Amino acid sequence: MITAVMPTYARAPLSFVKGEGSWLLDDQGRRYLDIGGGIAVNALGHAHPELVKTLKTQAENLWHTSNLYQIPNQQELADKLVANTFADTVFFTNSGTEAMEAAVKMARKYFSHIGQPERYKMIAFTDSFHGRTLGMISAAGAPKLTNGFGPMLPGFSQVPLHDLDAVKAAIDDETAAIIIEPVQGEGGILPVEDSFMRDLRTLCDENGLLLIMDEIQCGIGRTGKLFAHEWSGALPDIMAVAKGIGGGFPLGACLATEKAAAGMTAGSHGTTYGGNPMACAVGRKVMDIIAKDDFLAGVSEKSGLFRQALEGLVASHPDVFELVRGAGLMLGIKCKVPNMNVVNAGYDAGVLTVPGGDNVIRLLPPLNISNDDIKEAVARLDQAATAIEAKQ
Ligand SMILES: *Cc1c(COP(=O)(O)O)cnc(C)c1O
After folding, report:
1. Which among 89, 141, 187, 192 would be 20 to 30 A from 50, CA to CA?
2. Could you tell me what percent of the chain has a pLDDT over 90?
3. pTM of the model
């Protein structure tokens, strides 16, 4: 008999009742160090006092009014995002995939607006992930996402990452945009080379294409800059953000230049909940804390410490681990044993990680994790690896 909750997830038999900072408490009274961060969502850890206070205050005043009216929290969050990024304007959503849908719709609308409606095609990359709507599984194109859900939305193609010739070959008179995650997340924590990001920017400029970046996982301070593309210097025309921006409250955003958003006029796009007062109150506070040079420098510092310790971990378990890669506090360990074995051994050792593509375990801790918790996480991963070796 089918379960009351539709069985679309392979859930671990863990049930958490409370969180504090980088730690979770389960219903058996056991503590776990949460290095998965709810898949890069809990950017400031669990129950951050300032976020709790912000949400409580907002909850006592106003939950929802709809986008029929002015929403000052939305206005202020938009101002903050515009002030801190390439963007001139922001559309708010509830999730990442909706932010990407807005990005793709905006790009199509742009070409319609400038009198080239025949340009609707978009080039994405192999092993990318943009969410689970029909549009975004069409964009990513992997059979594991699309199987049984056809026909797909037409116009998307996928080429291998770092293959500029393949990108060039995929461009034709109907191409509108290129879509890229500056650090592939679900694909297995794969940072895109800075030179490739710049090459894509140049290619877009030469061909009049829009460059759409998906920073849903790698954005909001995760790599030690507010947005990952800043490392390369290549700017997007449109960018999707979600996960960390809400710190655990559902919130997404699609940022754009004035030019790219030229077709987005009243009535062209919308959402009931997107940018509601609760989500934007939290998002504003998250931005207040993260979008600061000293906070971002702290992410890079912690990254250095974590990475060095992980290199040591990998070196001392050569039969379990292959290598460490990633950027900032978006780290991946490629495994030699099935990655789920490591994730499961981590549960036994009281540390939570997230499986990813290419047999990687993902480490996406809170950006304010303490140095002690980083050391504790590595000790627990060491314990997990030792348990796996004992069984081999
Ligand atoms: C998580 C993720 C999405 C989808 O976000 P949802 O909030 O689950 O819709 C899209 N792109 C990337 C890169 C992601 O990591």
Report:
1. 89
2. 100
3. 0.98
Distance 58 CA to ligand 1 centre (A): 26
**Does ligand 1 have an atom closer than 6 angstroms to the CB of 185?**
yes
Query: Where are the CATH 3.90.1150.10 domain residues in the chain?
Result: 16-34+293-391
Check if 96 has its Cβ closer than 6 Å to any atom of ligand 1: yes
Fold of 50-290: Aspartate Aminotransferase; domain 2 (3.40.640)
Spacing, Cα 98 to ligand 1 middle (Å)? 9
Cβ 354 under 6 angstroms from ligand 1: no
Residue pLDDT, tens place only, 335-351: 999 999 999 999 999 99
pLDDT digits (tens, 9 = 90+) for 256-304: 999 999 999 999 999 999 999 999 999 999 999 999 999 999 999 999 9
Q: What is the mean pLDDT of residues 9-33?
A: 98
* pLDDT computed for residue 392 by the predictor: 86
pLDDT tens column, 90-100: 999 999 999 99
**Interstrand relation of 330-335 and 360-363 (parallel, antiparallel or unpaired):** antiparallel
Indicate the angle between helix axes 339-349 and 371-391, nearest 10 degrees: 120
- Residue ID of nearest Cα to ligand 1 atom 3: 131
Q: State the DSSP code for 296.
A: H
CATH 3.90.1150.10 fits domain 16-34+293-391: yes
Pocket test for ligand 1, best of 243, 249, 254, 330 (most atoms within 8 A of CB): 243
Cβ–ligand 1 distance for 130 under 6 Å, the answer: yes
Tokens of 327: 């950027």
How many Cβ atoms sit within 10 Å of the Cβ of residue 204?
Answer: 21
Burial class (CB in 10 A: 0-12, 13-18, 19+), 12: exposed
